[in-house]
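Hi R.,

As promised on Friday, here is the backbone we talked about, encoded as structure tokens. Could you run it through your design pipeline when you get a chance and send me back a sequence?
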């Protein structure tokens, strides 16, 4: 009896990107993503990959079937949407978390329905270079900025850890480092040295309003949920992405 060649084909689904693919050169509004398999669980339980922090990168590279698209070059919101899909289809939509009751200050366990997380579409149209514009309310200067990818965030965190270790410093510079990486022009000036200095002396009000606008237009999933605590208090909480996200049976 001959084997069915299609018997072991991994099924997939087509995922709509919150960014609509507007900031990628080699991708449309959707990407093809394979469902997780038992073989993929080998990756999730590989000590070396887990310890190196590369486990999710390796998993996403295996599951995203879009030629020429590196998972690390995805916007964080698009990456999160794919991770939620993989987790939901592999282990179910109910995600166990531990939160703190705002009334009693005691920890309690609950479950978040991942299928109910609202999608936040991209909030503005980029220019031909993939940049967005914002006029600073105090300085009245127009900045052009880009949205960061998973690779950008990874590099920022590594650079910050290296800086803190080198200088033995406890003060984080992630806020200004992130802004300096995102801002590409200030009133047409693209000089990186100028932009670095500009960010350092940017009025706090302008910095706050710019970051609020960046967050407003950034596509992704709203990773917050309304939760009822044992005390009866209802509060909105950021969903903690812990080891239980891809390892649901682990004890916290």
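Update: got your reply. Pasting your designed sequence below so it's all in one thread:
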């Amino acid at each position: 009896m001959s084997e069915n060649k299609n018997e072991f084909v991994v099924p997939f689904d087509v995922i709509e990107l919150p960014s609509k693919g507007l900031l990628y050169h080699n991708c449309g509004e959707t990407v093809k993503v394979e469902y997780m398999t038992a073989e993929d669980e080998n990756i999730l339980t590989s000590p070396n990959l887990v310890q190196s922090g590369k486990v999710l990168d390796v998993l996403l590279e295996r599951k995203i079937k879009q030629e020429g698209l590196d998972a690390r070059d995805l916007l964080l919101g698009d990456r999160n949407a794919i991770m939620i899909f993989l987790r939901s289809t592999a282990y179910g939509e109910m995600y166990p978390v531990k939160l703190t009751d705002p009334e009693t200050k005691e920890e309690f366990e609950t479950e978040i329905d991942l299928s109910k997380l609202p999608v936040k579409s991209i909030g503005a149209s980029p220019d031909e270079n993939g940049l967005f514009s914002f006029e600073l309310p105090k300085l009245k200067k127009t900045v052009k900025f880009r949205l960061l990818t998973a690779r950008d965030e990874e590099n920022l965190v590594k650079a910050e850890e290296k800086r803190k270790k080198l200088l033995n410093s406890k003060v984080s510079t992630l806020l200004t480092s992130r802004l300096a990486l995102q801002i590409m022009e200030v009133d047409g000036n693209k000089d990186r040295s100028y932009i670095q200095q500009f960010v350092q002396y940017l009025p706090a009000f302008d910095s706050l309003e710019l970051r609020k606008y960046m967050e407003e237009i950034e596509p992704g999933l709203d990773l917050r949920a309304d939760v009822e605590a044992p005390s009866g208090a209802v509060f909105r909480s950021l969903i903690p992405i812990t080891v239980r996200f891809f390892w649901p049976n682990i004890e916290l």
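One thing I noticed while checking it: DSSP finds eight helices and eleven strands in the chain.

Thanks again,
M.
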